[in-house]
Design goal:
Elements lengths: L2 E5 L9 H18 L3 E4 L13 H11 L4 E4 L2 E2 L5 H14 L4 E6 L6 H4 L8 H13 L11 H12 L14 E6 L4 H8 L4 E3 L8 H11 L11 E9 L3 H8 L2 H9 L10 H6 L4 H11 L3 E3 L1 H15 L3 E5 L5 H15 L3
Parallel strand pairs: 1-2, 1-10, 2-3, 3-5, 4-5, 5-6, 6-7, 7-8, 8-9, 8-10
């Protein structure tokens, strides 16, 4: 199957992070049963509506709870970690679960010490001291944000190839991916290093095609990959009929708005909470790109539209993320989509 899953371990209103994590393990088992190719976990910090804060830890739990499905990160944010730490974490995972681990790499927006000082958690002196030490170990020159992204990815590849004799990493069989949402450094880095690329259509629908084009234009065959390989992501809600799907998806706009106005993704609202929310023209304009490109509807219709996206981008695989308030409805969405996709 050319369908995969991206899970943020969403926390819904009325529940806690522990509930979200139990739901993640349950959904992963269902995804494996349904034939999804891979199951990726996101990374978000200080976000009330997301429990997936440490992909490596959650990958270990999901891989242990399943048998065959590939499990990976979508994505590890390299700006927060030295490459050695990331490589060793995923080397351990690959040794424990050979042939099943994906290391998806993403960029941070650029973390500066001046930004940390503004945050009540990160402004603690001990955190600032650790940050300065890490930046020094990374070779960051004074006044810079972080090393070039290609350099960071290259260090991880070098560790796998045995450049520094990191025993748990050298020869580990985890796949290295690069994730991006625009025709910038991430897409070009993936192409130049001959790595597979995941385009975040669900994050930035307007720029995903440009990202894919930039990746293909920059692609150089490598020992890991002879030709470009593209995954494109999409937000999806499927139900037995369109009306039910629309009702399940109704809170999505309010949730996206909470991200974009700086609240960091509140717990995902219920349909009742969404119905009581008062929209303005200004707030609707902040989320229209995401709400209009969400794939919502009956199984056959959504499967056909996703296949159109796959064809338009030339993607080899579609990465689906579904967030609704009711966990059973979320599992059912993935089940209905898998069956419909088999008929496309």
């Amino acid at each position: 199957m050319t369908l995969s899953v991206l899970d943020l371990a969403p926390v819904v209103s009325g529940q806690r992070a522990a509930d979200a994590l139990r739901n993640t393990l349950d959904l992963a088992r269902h995804a494996e049963r349904l034939g999804y190719r891979r199951y990726w976990l996101a990374e978000h910090h200080l976000t009330p509506g997301v429990a997936s804060t440490s992909p490596a830890v959650l990958i270990a739990a999901v891989a242990a709870a399943t048998r065959d499905i590939r499990v990976g990160s979508g994505a590890v944010l390299l700006g927060y970690y030295p490459p050695l730490v990331v490589a060793e974490q995923f080397g351990l995972l690959a040794n424990l679960h050979p042939g099943r681990i994906d290391l998806g790499l993403g960029r941070t927006a650029g973390v500066k010490e001046s930004d940390l000082a503004k945050h009540p958690v990160f402004s603690a002196p001990e955190f600032i001291a650790r940050y300065r030490l890490q930046q020094g170990l990374l070779g960051v020159r004074e006044g810079a944000v972080e090393p070039p992204y290609a350099e960071q990815v290259g260090r991880i590849l070098g560790l796998v190839e045995g450049e520094h004799h990191a025993n748990v990493v050298e020869g580990a069989d985890f796949e290295v991916w690069v994730l991006g949402s625009s025709a910038g450094e991430s897409a070009v880095t993936a192409g130049e290093l001959g790595l597979p690329f995941a385009a975040a259509y669900h994050v930035s629908p307007r720029t995903a095609q440009a990202a894919v084009d930039a990746y293909r234009a920059a692609f150089v065959p490598s020992e890991r990959l002879a030709a470009p390989y593209v995954v494109v992501s999409a937000d999806v809600v499927v139900a037995e009929d369109e009306a039910t799907a629309v009702e399940l998806a109704a809170p999505y706009g309010q949730w996206v708005l909470s991200i974009r106005v700086g609240d960091g993704a509140v717990p995902f609202p219920s349909p009742e909470e969404a119905a009581a929310f008062e929209w303005t023209d200004e707030t609707r304009a902040k989320v229209v790109d995401r709400t209009e490109t969400q794939f919502v509807g009956a199984p056959g219709d959504v499967a056909r539209r996703l296949d159109d996206l796959r064809a338009a981008t030339g993607a080899d695989e579609v990465l689906v993320t579904t967030i609704v308030h009711d966990h059973a409805a979320r599992v059912r969405s993935y089940e209905l989509l898998a069956k419909a996709w088999a008929q496309v």
